[in-house]
Amino acid sequence: MAIRIRTLLPATALAWCGAVALTLAQSPSRTVWDGVYTTEQAARGAALYTANCALCHGPTLAGADGPPLTGVEFSSNWNGLTLGDLYERVRSSMPPDDPGKLSAQDKADVIAHILSTASFPAGMTDLPRDAQVLMQIRFVSEKP
């Protein structure tokens, strides 16, 4: 019995360490405070927003027929989720009359505009249009 426990204990510890490493590898390592979009991308997104989103979400993103895309309500709804979650919501349902109207890049640009309007800092590279990459960026409403 003692030999069996000595054999199982290291294997169990190794499995636990592997599970912890896998969890850490899957956890988003960046946040919206890390400069995840460019000012140029946000400007492109502003034009797209005006043409495709402002009717429902208001010209200042404060909401109209649709919910606000800035402010406390928006931040509390998305806090702790990822930009991949936000992108998926936009991809699958916006604009409501034709979710396929905007390209993947256009949708990433609109999200950059949303981040810019919320005063998250710009960076040196565009926000990617790949949902899997966006899953690695967490929306955190307050600066860590």
Short structural summary:
This protein is mostly helical. It contains seven helices and two strands.
Structure description:
- It is built from seven helices and two strands, in the order αβααααααβ.
- The protein is mainly α and 144 residues long.
- It has a two-stranded parallel sheet with strand order 1-2.
- Helix 2 crosses helix 6 (104-117) and helix 5 crosses helix 6.
- The longest helix has 25 residues, at 2-26.
- The relative contact order is 0.21.
Which architecture name does CATH use? Answer: Orthogonal Bundle
Name the helicity range.
55-70%
Supply the CATH class: Mainly Alpha
Please count the helical segments.
Answer: 7
Radius of gyration over C-alpha positions, nearest whole angstrom = 20 Å
Described by the principal axes of the CA atoms, the overall outline is globular
SS elements, strand count: 2
- The string of secondary-structure elements, in order, is HEHHHHHHE
User: Oligomer, anyone?
Assistant: single chain
Considering the protein shown, what is the CATH homologous superfamily?
Answer: Cytochrome c-like domain
Mean pLDDT score? 87
- Strand content range: under 5%
The structural domain count equals 1
Structural class, judged by helices and strands?
A: mainly alpha
